[in-house]
Structures are given as structure tokens and as C-alpha cells.
């Protein structure tokens, strides 16, 4: 029997990718770089600074800014992103998420968050689901981002289970790779992308039952 769940945030619990996209697109435009939705796919699950580096490289401007200037650019993007989240509430939970979390709580199955987002605690609070999670891994404490397994290993440890006893949920390829490298069972959640390496892929969490999953 599996003993705990580790969730990515953006794309699994809620869809904040659209707000990241607006904020990055506006910042990139100010720098004379045009990004589109296809490029935005490559930013999913990637940290804020790594996302900025990718955008600058895409616009051949990777050597145009000092570290301090890059930090200011990332901060500017984040300020716009946070403003776009102002109206986020329970209605923005992805389908099936609330029901799944309730089922897990009823069975006392511990849950943790493994998200690259430094905004995760605030987002979960706005969504009204913060109390379902025993721990949120602080991305500031990580040496490496996804696809490195570090964030998933830390998430399992934080809820006192071994990685092999955990099930990880992800919408991004880098995340599935991290979950598998951590030795967990990987559930991919995507309607459109084929998540290579996932042990199970569903279009949404409405297709999942806690009871059945625990026996995989
Ligand atoms: P922040 P996840 C990731 O969330 C997003 O997918 C990614 O686009 C974003 O750059 C990253 O969080 C950092 O977010 O700027 O809020 O710290 O998918 O790992 O939950
Ligand atoms: Mg994600």
C-alpha cells in the first residue's frame, strides 16, 4: 500500500500557467523579446530565475544584464504575476482536486506540495486548501530544480514517508522525471501532452480514486 501523496501546484492543483504567461510576455515585450504559448510550455515547472534566463537566451540577450538587473527583472515579473492572482479562489481549483484531497484526509493519508513556486503558500491559502497539506517544500532550500528529484525526496521526508511509498502528481515532463528519479509512483495529469515515463496518465483528477491509487 502507498502511504502518502506529493503534489505539484501549477497545472495539478490550479492553473496559474496562464498568469505566468501574461506576466512573462509583458516583461519580455519590454525587453524587445516576443514569446508565444509554445515557448511558454517550456517554462512549466521551471524556477523564476531559470525562466528569465530561458527568455533572455531565446531573445539572444543572455549577456545583456548584470545579476542585480536580472533579479530586478524577475521581481518585476513577480509583482505583475501576484497582481493577476488577486481574484484567485476555490473556484480556481482544477476539477477533482478538492474531492481527492477530502478523500485523502478522510483516510489520514499525508499530503505535501513539491512546487517550484515561491508563491505556493499564498496560492494554496487563496484556493482554500492550505490545511490539507502537512508540508510545502520551500524552493529556496533546493540545490537543484526539477527534473532533479530533490524537491520530491524532501516532500516525502517532510510527511515522514519513504519515497517508494509515495505517489507524485505532475503536469510537466520535468516533474515526471523528478518523481521517477525519486523512486515514486508517477501520476501525470494532462489533457494535451504525452508525459513520458508516467506510471499512469489522466486528463484530470476527476478520474482518480484515493482508495484505488493506494493499492498500485
Ligand atoms: P514563482 P510548479 C512553477 O510551478 C511554474 O510551473 C513555473 O512556470 C514557475 O516559473 C515556477 O513555479 C516558479 O514560480 O515565480 O511563483 O516562484 O509547476 O512547480 O507548481
Ligand atoms: Mg506544474
TrEMBL record:
GO terms for biological process: carbohydrate metabolic process. Binds 2 magnesium ions per subunit. The active site is at residues 8, 10. Its cofactor is Mg(2+). The record marks 115, 146 as: Important for catalytic activity and assists the phosphoryl transfer reaction to Asp8 by balancing charge and orienting the reacting groups. Mg(2+) binds at residues 8, 10, 170-171. This is Beta-phosphoglucomutase.
Amino acid at each position: 500500500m502507498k502511504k502518502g501523496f506529493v503534489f505539484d501546484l501549477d497545472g495539478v492543483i490550479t492553473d496559474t500557467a496562464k498568469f505566468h504567461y501574461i506576466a512573462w510576455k509583458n516583461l519580455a515585450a519590454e525587453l524587445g523579446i516576443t514569446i508565444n504559448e509554445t515557448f511558454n510550455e517550456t517554462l512549466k515547472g521551471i524556477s523564476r530565475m531559470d525562466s528569465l534566463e530561458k527568455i533572455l537566451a531565446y531573445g539572444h540577450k543572455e549577456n545583456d544584464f548584470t545579476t542585480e538587473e536580472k533579479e530586478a527583472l524577475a521581481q518585476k515579473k513577480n509583482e505583475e504575476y501576484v497582481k493577476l492572482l488577486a481574484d484567485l479562489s476555490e473556484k480556481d481549483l482544477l476539477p477533482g482536486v478538492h474531492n481527492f484531497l477530502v478523500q485523502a484526509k478522510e483516510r489520514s493519508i499525508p499530503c505535501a506540495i513539491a512546487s517550484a513556486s515561491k508563491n505556493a503558500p499564498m496560492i494554496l491559502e487563496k484556493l482554500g486548501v492550505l490545511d490539507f497539506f502537512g508540508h510545502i517544500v520551500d524552493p529556496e532550500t533546493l540545490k537543484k530544480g526539477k527534473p532533479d528529484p530533490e524537491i520530491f525526496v524532501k516532500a516525502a521526508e517532510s510527511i515522514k514517508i519513504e519515497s517508494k511509498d509515495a505517489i507524485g502528481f505532475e503536469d510537466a515532463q520535468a516533474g515526471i522525471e523528478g518523481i521517477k528519479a525519486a523512486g515514486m509512483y508517477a501520476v501525470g495529469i494532462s489533457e494535451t501532452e504525452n508525459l513520458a515515463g508516467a506510471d499512469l496518465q489522466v486528463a484530470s483528477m476527476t478520474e482518480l480514486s484515493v482508495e484505488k491509487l493506494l493499492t498500485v
